[in-house]
Amino acid sequence: MTAKEQLLKRVQTLTEAEAAETLRLLDQGTDPLTQLLDNALPDDEPSSPEEDALAQEALARLHVAR
Description:
Blueprint: H1 3-11, H2 16-28, H3 32-38, H4 49-65
């Protein structure tokens, strides 16, 4: 069964309210958290050298984990 077939099967079981909410989410294009983060104000507070070092360490660990 294709993804579209599976999706259609699931959509047919939705209540009208669930279908309306699903349409609203699809029309947004992104989930609410992503929208919130996309619209957040930039962080303009300077970071300390210690914070910069911790951020660099975290990025290095992230690259190693991939």
